[in-house]
Amino acid sequence: METRQIWERLKGALGGGVEVECTDAVAAGSEEEKALGKKGYRPRDPFLTVQAETVPAAMAFLRDDPDLAFDFLQCLSAVDYPAGGALAELSADDKLAVVYHLYSYTHRHLLVVKVFVPRGAPLVPTVSDLWPVANWHEREAYDLFGVIFEGHPDLRRIMLPEEFEGHPCLKDYVERPTVMGIPTTRYSGLGLLGKLSDGG
């Protein structure tokens, strides 16, 4: 089933009061892509956008409807969209996006769903009750971007220590000279090559 067909089905299931948008991909080499220029936003895949409060109902429908049957969450990731950044036309305000890549083993179709939330209050309901693999994916998005997944059974850092301050994948994150007493200096292999060539 194509993304626009899934979009129509989801809109019908959730009712007219729910905002669900569909963004088509731009074909490589097309006139539309040429008109966008080098800095234009080109989604690689078509995607649906749903509101955070809609996530439980929308995702349950996408999983449980027999004609859709998205039984596999391939990936859950996050993206930082600061205001005035390279993709400012996508969002005029500071936002984070949670991106879900869904797949149906039954029907062999794919779907990308995006949820945009304010950067200052990045709250999204968990989907770990629908796809257990989301448990770790959501912890990673929390750890690196600060997205808070409401209802998650164990929302804590997964890669960084609990004492770590900040979320290092945010575009305005500034690395400190030391973290928890450990220097963050990285030594360049190129500098070592220069010393060797000088006979040092």
Task: Give a description of the structure.
The chain is an alpha/beta fold and 200 residues long. It has one domain (3-197): NADH:ubiquinone oxidoreductase Nqo5 subunit (Beta Polymerase, domain 2, 2-Layer Sandwich). It is 24% helix and 23% strand. The protein contains 5 helices and 9 strands, in the order αβαβαββββαβββα.
What fraction of the residues are assigned to beta strands by DSSP? 15-25%
* Adjacency order of strands in the biggest sheet: 1-2-5-4-3
Q: What is the global morphology?
A: globular
Structural class: alpha/beta
- Main CATH class: Alpha Beta
What's the number of extended β-strand segments?
Answer: 9
Main β sheet profile: 5 strands, mixed
CATH topology: Beta Polymerase, domain 2
What is the overall pLDDT average? 85
Q: What separation lies between the terminal Cα atoms?
A: 64 Å
Secondary-structure element pattern, one letter each: HEHEHEEEEHEEEH
Number of separate helices: 5
Q: Would you identify the CATH architecture?
A: 2-Layer Sandwich
Using only C-alpha atoms, the radius of gyration works out to: 21 Å
Feature tags:
24% helix; five-stranded mixed β-sheet; 5 helices; 200 residues; alpha/beta; Beta Polymerase, domain 2
